[in-house]
Amino acid sequence: MRFVSPYQYLNFIGFLLSFGILPFSLLCQQKSVQPATTENGATTKTINNSANSSTIRSINKYGGLQAQLDGTGPKAIKSIPIEPDIREDETWENIWSNMKTSFEFPFEDFLKNNQVDALSGSIAITYPFSDAASRADNGSNSQGVALSSAVLGLSLSYKPISYWFVSVSVMRYFFPDQKRSWNPDFTYSFGYNDWHPYTFSFVYSNFQGNRLFPNIASGEVVTHFWEGNFALGWKFPSAKLIEHVCVVHPSGGIGHSLHLNIHPQYRIQGAKQDELGFWKTALSFSTKYTIYEQIYANFTVFWYPIPGQQQPWDPDFTYGIGFFDWHPYTLSLQYNNHVGGRFPWNPSKATLRGILDGTLSLSWSFVF
Predict the structure, then answer these.
(1) pTM beyond 0.85
(2) CA 107 – CA 254 distance, rounded (Å)
(3) What 3-state DSSP class applies to 251?
(4) Contacts of 49 (CB under 8 A, 6+ apart)
(5) Cα dihedral 182, 183, 185, 189 sign
(6) In terms of CB atoms within 10 Å, which of 28, 164, 306, 336 comes out highest?
């Protein structure tokens, strides 16, 4: 019989609490969403109240479902698109009309756009509450828990057209002596990620032990590209009955996404340094519950269909809570736990401390 540490239960409780905050959300005032404006070049246009409200609500519900912890915080959205009400009805006509817009690449818009306007970024300070990422059982070679100490992160994101993007983040560790081979100097991602419901996304991300100045003598390289994650996702709204019961403010909502995650190569704990596994596959289900405007809770559950591929640092679930503001020149405060959280019936060999393994991040977003 395998021994289950009390910390495993603490982590599981933290996962439940991250989505069990409905009583707190009832304290929020029931005020209406105010009209906003959007910037299009040098011209500022006012969006009608109904279209603006549904668009903002959709961004709040689905924005960030693809995001992973990289120590750099949320990215800013420079302009809110002028479009009709966001439809979430479950008719096949509406679902298909949104699905077929995925991966559009209107090249004529690319030629017209001011590419400087496509740049945004953020600066963040992220503090891990524990030394989880420094423990030997939470990583191997270039893969493991990402952040081993407090970091200052700078992120730049470039969205040249539609919802195609490239993002790069650079980190400065406050305590470099705690950094391990799997803790990155920088992370990067690119792909297509649309926040509208019933749309597909395809994103490559690499949060492994990337090095700005690799030590060639010790076998380091700038990046292990094929150890990154290829994720195919699909976003969809929650059932109307669930939203009716749980959503307590017009600006709130519940959005979901499904992802197929594939790592072409991955490290195996306890194996030789150069030994690799191949095609690690995980299915994930994510939920983001927007309580009141920018206040949210989120969780993700993972399932590894191929036995033996899940490593000690690979979680059964992750969760977070915070204040996430996608407007430029605003602050966001977020708690996230991306350490290898496990359900009580699937304990990990790694040393885990539940909620205490999370990180707290304060970020400021900007645009050019």
Answers:
(1) no
(2) 33
(3) coil
(4) 33, 35
(5) positive
(6) 336
Give me the chain's average pLDDT, please. Answer: 77
227 is written with which tokens? 């150890």
8 Å CB contact between 237 and 263: no
Q: What angle (nearest 5°) sits at the alpha carbon of residue 301, between those of residues 300 and 304?
A: 135
Render pLDDT for 97-143 as a digit per residue (tens, 0 to 9): 889 889 988 877 777 766 666 788 899 999 988 776 666 666 666 67
Burial 337-354, CB ≥16 within 10 A → b, else e: bbbbbbbeeebbebbbbb
Tell me if residue 291 falls in helix, strand or coil: strand
Does residue 11 have a pLDDT over 80? no
Strand partners, 367: 120
SS3 56: helix
Q: What are 200-223's pLDDT values in tens digits?
A: 999 999 988 899 999 888 888 999
Q: How far apart are CA 352 and CA 132, in angstroms?
A: 7
